UniProtKB/TrEMBL annotation:
It is found in: Membrane. It comes from Penicillium cataractarum. One of its GO terms (cellular component) is fungal-type vacuole membrane. It is a multi-pass membrane protein. GO terms for molecular function: basic amino acid transmembrane transporter activity. Residues 32-504 form the Major facilitator superfamily (MFS) profile domain. Keywords: Membrane, Transmembrane, Transmembrane helix. The chain crosses the membrane at residues 67-85, 97-122, 158-178, 185-203, 244-261, 273-297, 317-339, 351-371, 377-397, 409-432. Its main location: membrane. Gene3D superfamilies: MFS general substrate transporter like domains, Multidrug resistance protein D. This is Major facilitator superfamily (MFS) profile domain-containing protein.
Length: 504
């Protein structure tokens, strides 16, 4: 979504066809655009795919306590890939970078599907996430090569809708495929679609060099029709040096933080204070050195710290972190609650994602139209946040204090309707406020902060739920000898965990 877009978020089908067929300036055809949208859908759907299949995968590999790592691994690879693909794109062009991302995605899906141990499955998810970040990010880079700005705005609206639908459809699709064909084929079935995208993009896409759309900085809270001419980098320009030191520090800090959160809640880690201290200390040290490196040492930082100022984009980034943390802390529990505590089948549990999917997708379209008609986005961000809080409060009260009925999954529509409104309007706020000098970096940082919030939310919620189950089990076995061994064995078996939750 762009700040100068005054037309409808989605054009009429006929109007779209005429534009695609009649514009001689459009280097991306309909077939190629379809392949890019499919790649974008796969990347976003895979982000939530394991929310409903992770428990089955970990249980089949005799590592139920490591289920959350399958989720975290994808997001870790995704986060690491975000700052890397910019440099890859400068070196090989956007076409080569997209093909590399698709190949890595397919390889990761194959490795996960054929893995015999949890370690190989986690490695496969990291590779899949690294490829998925390129499939998502580079679509925007490719669209920036289109000479007609209005076509860019129209196609970006499609990408936004497909991304939101992919995120919300990933979990129910994962549950359905796992119940029908098994978890191995549920991952491997992604590969033919990735290969189809590779074939179409290889044959039909003819773009050699990335371009960037840079907009001016209008007044915060409103949208002005201020579009600068597209600025295209010269073909002979020298590539910027890549901040390898900053990337290494960032990866180390993120890995240490996630390991600390995971292990702090793991069974038996209370006595491993030294391990937790090393992880926590390494995270702090790497974070400090990363900030110093970005501020003083490197010429071209991955994350210019000036963007984090409150007067610039600091509030937007902070909001994205907490929105990502809150939404993804709830997401892993949504269908598991009904399956594990209410005894519904996996297929019925997947139905819980129906209202969530509708709410998220509907909010993207509605918010876009509201912003375009009023030219105000801050108001809709606040309204969306209020709707989301109301929806989550309904879930909290009705699902915990009372005995909920199946129709009460509709509360998810309200919760994610508001969440989608907030996310959509916040992205417009970013587009309207990003500095011209760091336009691309500000967008990459936006996704990076959001992704860290996603990872923290998933990791914290899974770890806390696992810890609470363990506490209840230990309390029930308080008079039994060898209760620690029994607890460890029980926590590794998903059907035992389900029985414990049902008996609460």
């Amino acid at each position: 979504m762009t700040i100068g877009e005054r037309k409808a978020l989605l054009d009429r089908p006929g109007q779209d066809e005429e534009a695609l067929a009649g514009s001689d300036k459009l280097p991306i055809g309909k077939l190629t655009m379809g392949a890019l949208l499919l790649a974008c859908f796969l990347a976003n759907a895979d982000e939530t795919f394991v929310l409903s299949t992770g428990s089955d995968v970990a249980s089949a590999l005799n590592a139920s306590s490591s289920a959350s790592w399958l989720i975290t691994a994808y997001n870790l690879g995704y986060t690491v890939g975000l700052p890397v693909y910019g440099q890859i794109c400068e070196s090989t062009g956007p076409k080569g970078a997209v093909l590399l991302a698709l190949a890595l995605y397919a390889a990761g899906c194959i490795l996960t599907g054929v893995s015999g141990t949890i370690n190989y499955a986690i490695a496969g998810r990291v590779i899949t996430g690294f490829g998925g970040s390129g499939m998502n990010e580079l679509v925007s880079v490719l669209l920036n090569n289109i000479d007609d700005f209005h076509r860019v705005a129209m196609l970006r609206s499609y990408v936004t809708t497909v991304s939101l639908v992919g995120i919300t459809c990933g979990a129910p699709i994962g549950a359905l495929l796992t119940s029908q064909i098994g978890w191995q084929l549920a991952f491997i079935i992604h590969v033919p679609f990735a290969l189809l995208c590779i074939a179409i993009i290889s044959l039909k896409l003819h773009i050699d060099k990335p371009r960037s759309l840079i907009t001016t900085d209008p007044k915060y809270g409103t949208i002005e029709e201020t579009i600068e001419e597209t600025k295209i980098q010269e073909s002979g320009s020298k590539s910027k040096p890549f901040d390898i030191v900053g990337l290494g520090l960032l990866i180390t800090a993120i890995v240490c933080l996630l390991c600390f959160v995971q292990l702090a809640e793991a069974q038996g880690m209370q006595n491993q204070v030294m391990v937790l201290a090393i992880l926590g200390g390494t995270f702090i040290i790497c974070s400090v050195i990363f900030c110093v490196n970005e501020a003083y040492w490197t010429r071209d930082p991955l994350l210019p710290l000036c963007l984090l100022r409150i007067s610039k984009l600091g509030l937007n980034y902070g909001a994205q972190f907490f929105i990502g943390l809150a939404s993804y802390a709830m997401t892993p529990m949504f269908s598991d609650y009904w399956v594990n505590t209410r005894g519904v089948s996996a297929e019925e549990g997947a139905m819980c994602w129906g209202p969530v999917t509708l709410g998220f997708a509907f909010s993207a379209l509605v918010t876009g139209k509201l912003i375009q008609s009023t030219h105000i986005y801050l108001r809709w961000s606040v309204i969306g946040l209020a709707i989301s809080i109301f929806g989550f409060l309904l879930i909290l009260v009705r699902w915990t204090v009372y005995q909920p009925h199946m129709w009460e999954i509709s509360y998810g529509f309200l919760a994610w309707l508001g969440m989608g409104m907030t996310l959509s309007s916040q992205f417009v706020a970013l587009s309207a406020s990003k500095p011209e000098q760091n336009a691309a970096t500000s967008v990459t940082t936006y996704y990076l902060v959001q992704q860290v919030g996603f990872m923290m939310g998933i990791t914290l919620s899974k770890a806390l739920i696992s810890r609470e189950i363990e506490h209840r089990l230990m309390f029930a076995l308080r008079d039994e000898s060898g209760r620690n061994e029994v607890s460890i064995d029980a926590m590794s078996r998903s059907y035992v965990v389900t029985h414990i939750l049902t008996c609460w």
